[in-house]
Amino acid sequence: MKLSSLILLTCAATVSGFAPVLPEQSSSALMAKGRRGGLSSGGNSKLNKPKSIGGSETDAESKPKSNWVQTSIPSIKSLPSEKNVVKLVDTQVPSLINKQTNPTGAVSVVNYEDKTYCFSSSCASCQIPLTKGNVLAPTDETNNEARLQCDFCGATYNLRTGAPVEKEGGKLFGFLFSKTESKELPVYGLGEQGGRVFINVP
Q1: Using a CB cutoff of 8 Å and minimum separation of 24, what contacts does 94-97 make?
Q2: Can you give the pLDDT at residue 81?
Q3: Could you give the C-alpha distances from 200 to 34, 89, 100, 118, 154, in angstroms and in order?
Q4: N- or C-end of the chain: fewer Cβ atoms within 10 A?
Q5: Which three-class secondary structure state does DSSP give residue 148?
Q6: DSSP letters along 30-95, please?
Q7: b vs e for 2-24, b when ≥16 Cβ sit within 10 Å of the residue's Cβ?
Q8: Are 193 and 48 in contact (CB under 8 A)?
Q9: Alpha-carbon gap, residue 110 to 84, rounded angstroms
C-alpha cells in the first residue's frame, strides 16, 4: 500500500512539473484573436494600409484585394540589405506556411537599386527554393524592370510583378519544366506600421 501511494505521489509531482505555464495576455490581445490583419492596440480595430517599403507593391488594377498580415520580422531594418542577393526571411504567416515545404512561411527578399522586393520562397515553375536565384538586368520586355532567374530550371520573372518573361539562356534541367514556365511568381508587398512589419498576401 505504501509503495503504490509513493508511486502515485511521484507521478502527480512529475505531471505537475510538466504543466504548461501560459503567459498573461491583456484583454485587448485576447479580443483581437481571429481578426484579419494582426492585433490591434487600443480602441481602433481597423488596420490602416501599412506604409509600403519596396518595389514589390503591385498595381491597384492588377491586384485590387489587399490582405495585410503582421509578420514575425522584427523590423524593416532587419531585412537583408545586401544588393542583388536573394535571401530567405521567415514570416510565420499562416497562409504562407506549408508543413512539408515551407514550415516557417519564408519569403524571398532581394534589394535591387535600394528597393526591397519580396516574392515566393520557391520558383513557380520547378518549386526549388530561389536562394541561388540570379537578379538580371532589365530588358525592353520587362519595361526596364529587373528580372529574376531560377538557378535550377532557368525560369525568368519580372522582379516587380512576378510575370514570366523570356529565359536568359538555357539551364540543364529547364526542358523538364517547360510546361509550367507560364506560371507567375507570387509577389508580396511589404509594409511597416507602428514599428511592426506587415506583408500583403493576396
Answers
A1: 95/69, 95/201, 96/199, 96/201
A2: 92
A3: 17, 15, 23, 10, 27
A4: N
A5: strand
A6: HHHTT-TTS---SS--PPPPPEE-BTTPPPTTT-----EEE-S---GGGS--SBT--EEE----GG
A7: eeeeeeeeeeeeeeeeeeeeeee
A8: yes
A9: 6
Chain-centre distance of CA 72, in angstroms?
A: 10
pLDDT at 185: 96
Segment-wise mean pLDDT, segments of 10 residues, the chain, 202 residues = 42 37 34 32 45 57 72 94 96 96 96 95 93 94 92 92 84 55 91 94 90
Q: Left if phi > 0, otherwise alpha if psi is -120 to 50, otherwise beta: which for 169? A: left
| pTM reported for the whole predicted model | 0.68
pLDDT score of 118: 97
Backbone phi and psi for residue 191, each to the nearest 5 degrees, phi listed first: -150, 170
